[in-house]
């Protein structure tokens, strides 16, 4: 096939090829960094990135969204590996993929858009805080405590320990320098910024560490094939554990929500085909099922790579597929290159990524306009730090549901008393048990020696608790010797 024929069949190949290079350069350090922070071999991050490009990238759903290992799941993966072992991780990811496939087949993908944005942002903020705290220990070459609260509480002692060690200070300095490069990268000339900031920061840190012979830890290299572990039958037996099932549900909820919210954000960046949410959920499920079979990290759509893909001029899904090809070629041909990357540099990249997950501006804006939503965001984030990922998300969802139920149960009681004759009371809105105390307080304050006409025709909804309470109040009022309460319904 000649070049002209190929361009006729793939009219956007030139743009997609260029975009794939950019996405590959963005994805490479993040795949490695997320894997190391998750407590698994660095190559497993590349495996997930390869599957995200070659498998998920080929499927229908969101045409320009790029999938791979994400910082948003780092904390949860680390906890799962620490609690159950690396052998069980593949089973958890596999089960997550199967659940996503099932939800996509049942057309449940669109309903993830109904999840409160405050809960999602709170979830990401909590993840970001725990990720930052954990990676600060890694920057100093120290072992991080297990829980989020312990990570935060132990930081002052970690600072003192690091200050006493020349090697720790050197490691922190390299990590801090990486963060500084990432922050300042956007201020550099446009020609320099054609190289993604994360890649530039890692390359500079590697050159500095190697050039000056700094005593810092490096990425351990095992080889792509050597890192892949197929789940054993014994590992599948762990699915009977309540803790493992809870982890699967947490993976499913967070990975699906993050992917579909990312898809909505990517749709706002371009004018191409819109996301088919159920198909996208099935694409993510297929990718996670395969990642689970390979014992790799869980996959989500990643907004950083997706935004880079769109901004680099990608027009079709060919760009994300090609980025998977480049990751595969790198992992197969240049695995030893990973061994020269200093761990403090990867920790610095993830501290920067964690900071971007904390929506400080959104919290301030929400507090001014929707304080209830701001409260949900903050409580969700604090709960994740204080308790755990799964329980924190459940607490956030419960708060969001309670807030919605409270707002939806708006009811108004209007009383007209002309001084003589019956007292007229009009109820309108949604009468639910949440507003029952207010309704009864107002009705019981009506004169006991006067007849009452209660008009319920303005109610859109009257739940069983309210209906029963109104009937009981009516009976009590009528028993006082006055005329029976006259109730009018719509």
TrEMBL record:
Keywords: Membrane, Transmembrane, Transmembrane helix. It is a multi-pass membrane protein. Residues 13-380 form the SLC26A/SulP transporter domain. The chain crosses the membrane at residues 17-37, 44-64, 84-102, 114-137, 168-185, 197-219, 239-261, 325-355, 375-402. It is found in: Membrane. GO terms for biological process: transmembrane transport. One of its GO terms (cellular component) is membrane. It comes from the Bacteria. The keyword Membrane applies. This is Sulfate transporter.
């Amino acid at each position: 096939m000649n070049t002209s024929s190929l361009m006729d069949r793939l009219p956007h190949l030139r743009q997609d090829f260029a975009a794939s290079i950019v996405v590959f350069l963005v994805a490479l350090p993040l795949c490695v960094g997320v894997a190391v922070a998750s407590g698994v071999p660095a190559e497993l991050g590349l495996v997930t990135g390869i599957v995200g490009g070659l498998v998920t990238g080929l499927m229908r759903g969101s045409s320009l969204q790029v999938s791979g290992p994400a910082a948003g799941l780092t904390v949860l993966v680390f906890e799962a590996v620490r609690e159950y072992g690396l052998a069980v991780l593949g089973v958890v990811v596999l089960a997550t993929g199967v659940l996503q496939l099932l939800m996509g087949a049942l057309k449940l993908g669109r309903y993830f858009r109904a999840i409160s944005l405050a809960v999602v942002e709170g979830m990401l903020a909590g993840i970001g805080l725990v990720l930052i705290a954990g990676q600060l220990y890694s920057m100093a070459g120290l072992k991080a405590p297990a829980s989020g609260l312990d990570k935060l509480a132990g930081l002052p002692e970690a600072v003192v320990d690091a200050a006493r060690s020349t090697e720790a200070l050197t490691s922190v300095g390299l990590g801090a320098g990486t963060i500084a490069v990432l922050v300042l990268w956007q201020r550099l000339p446009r020609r320099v910024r054609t190289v993604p900031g994360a890649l530039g920061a890692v390359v500079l840190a590697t050159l500095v560490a190697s050039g000056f012979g700094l005593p810092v830890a490096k990425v351990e290299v095992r080889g792509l094939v050597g890192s892949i572990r197929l789940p054993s039958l014994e590992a599948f037996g762990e699915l009977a554990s309540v803790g493992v099932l809870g982890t699967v549900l947490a993976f499913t909820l967070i990975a699906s929500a993050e992917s579909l919210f990312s898809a909505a954000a990517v749709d706002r960046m371009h004018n191409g085909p819109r996301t088919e949410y159920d198909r996208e959920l099935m694409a993510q499920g297929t990718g996670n099922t395969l990642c689970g079979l390979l014992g790799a990290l869980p996959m989500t759509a990643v907004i950083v790579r997706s935004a880079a893909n769109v901004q680099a001029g990608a027009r079709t899904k060919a760009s994300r597929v090609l980025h998977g090809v480049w990751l595969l070629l790198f992992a197969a041909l240049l695995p030893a290159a990973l061994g020269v990357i200093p761990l403090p540099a990867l920790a610095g990249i993830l501290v920067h990524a964690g900071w971007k997950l904390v929506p400080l501006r959104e919290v301030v804006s929400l507090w001014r306009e929707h304080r209830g939503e701001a409260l949900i965001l903050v409580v969700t984030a604090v709960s994740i730090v204080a308790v755990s990922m799964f329980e924190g998300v459940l607490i956030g969802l419960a708060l969001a549901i309670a807030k919605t139920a409270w707002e939806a149960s708006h009811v108004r009681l209007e009383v007209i008393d002309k001084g003589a004759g019956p007292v007229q009371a009009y109820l309108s809105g949604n009468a639910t048990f949440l507003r029952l105390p207010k309704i009864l307080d107002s009705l019981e304050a009506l004169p006991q020696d006067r007849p009452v006409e209660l008009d319920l025709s303005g109610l859109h909804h009257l739940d069983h608790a309210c209906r029963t309470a109104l009937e009981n109040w009516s009976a009590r009022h009528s028993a006082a010797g006055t005329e029976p309460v006259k109730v009018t319904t719509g």
